[in-house]
Amino acid sequence: MESRRVPYLLMGLIFAIGLAIFLATCKGGGGGDDDDSGPPPGWTIQTIDSAGDEGWYTSIALDSNNKVHISYYDWDNEDLKYAADSSGTWQAFTIDSAGDVGYDTSIALDSNDKVHISYFDFTNSVLKYATNSLGTWQTFTIDSTGWVGEYTSIALDSNNKVHISYYDWDNEDLKYATNSSGSWQTFTIDSAGDVGWYTSIALDSNNKVHISYYDCGELTDNGCTKGDLKYATNKTGAWHTFTLDSAGDVGWWTSIALDSDDRVHISYQDYTNADLKYATNSSGNWQTFTIDSEGDVGWWTSIALDSNNRVHISYSNGTNADLKYATNSSGNWQTFTIDSTGVVGVWTSIALDSNNRVHISYQDYTNADLKYATNAEVE
Predict the structure, then answer these.
(1) Predicted pLDDT at 378
(2) Total structural domains within the chain
(3) How far from 110 is each of 90, 218, 253, 262, 355, CA to CA, in Å?
(4) How far is 131 from 115, CA to CA, in rounded Å?
């Protein structure tokens, strides 16, 4: 089991280390794109937590006052951490330190601005969940049936009930947990091969569940035998799964969002061509598009939609080790480099505020910091 975990748990680390070594060799030891000109006009970048090796597996959400909440992993102390500016200034907290916890964090806020975080407990190989919904922080083990809980993603329905998608490593399945019935229940959604990597979850206006994920097929010494983007939903009442893109090794780092018409939007990486891709059924039929093909792009994608149903995607450019951002908010797709100082843009997560301003959390790998970028006005 341990040997099978290496491709997943160390994938980000191996990529970042390899990238840093490559850039140090090719760019005179500077690391990353040596452009220190700062962010583009209108953007502000802040370092939120530099207390140790911070900012792994970041996830971001905004409350009803447009205050920012970020969950992430502290590599040095092996803890789940949480940072927020809801008090008026940034504060960081350790939420769970019982073992090596906090991998694959995902955050969501309920209608009362209470925080809900799903994450993986490496020590006990279980799916965990943390919340302050009762006023103080509490942590719970949601699924402990084998080695479960990697690639977590969380969403809340209109009744503030919790829905989590995740991967069952032992059985190589996509799983789903919810307390929507009043008590926690877990379900296997897809067991056709080695499925459920890079899960992302969203709920529609009827509280139906939509999940994007990666279908490996079978994990061999040479990699995955399939490599498809898949999608699962229970919107008709029963669960159905679909293959959306199978043109090469695609479906890495999926992220899902639904628009006001309950149409689905998914960002992901085409690993074969090192491109950022996007799939949607907004026209009535599923279509896939290549959004960015300049360099080795599409790592750690995250997607959000604004009030006009325009798409916003954060991701990493592996060639230059930059944080990038793509949007069609102007009517046409445009891509921007947001941060290029060092090896940055690892574990990106994106959210939009009520003014359609963009907020992105990510890791500065060079300095081992949690960073945050926004084009909103910073107080």
Answers:
(1) 84
(2) 1
(3) 20, 37, 25, 19, 19
(4) 5
Q: Is residue 141 one of the residues assigned to a domain?
A: yes
H helices within the chain, ranges in order? Answer: 2-9, 11-26
Residue 193 and residue 216: Cα distance in Å, rounded?
Answer: 7
Expressed in angstroms, the distance from the first to the final Cα of the chain is 48
DSSP-based helix, strand, coil % in the chain, nearest 5: 5, 55, 40
Residue 247's domain comprises 2-374
CA gap 125, 99 in Å, rounded: 11
Tell me, what's the pLDDT at 31? 42
Which of 4-18, 71-85, 97-111, 236-250 is the least confident region?
4-18
Lateral strand order in the sheet of 334-339: 297-305, 311-317, 322-327, 334-339
Domain CATH number, residue 134: 2.120.10.10
Question: Distance between CA atoms of 262 and 257, rounded to whole angstroms?
Answer: 9
- Name the least confident of 217-221, 337-341, 356-360: 217-221
Q: Give per-residue pLDDT as tens, 310-323.
A: 999 999 999 999 99
On whether residue 379 sits in a domain, the answer given is: no
Q: Strand (E) positions, 132-193?
A: 138-143, 148-156, 162-168, 173-178, 185-190
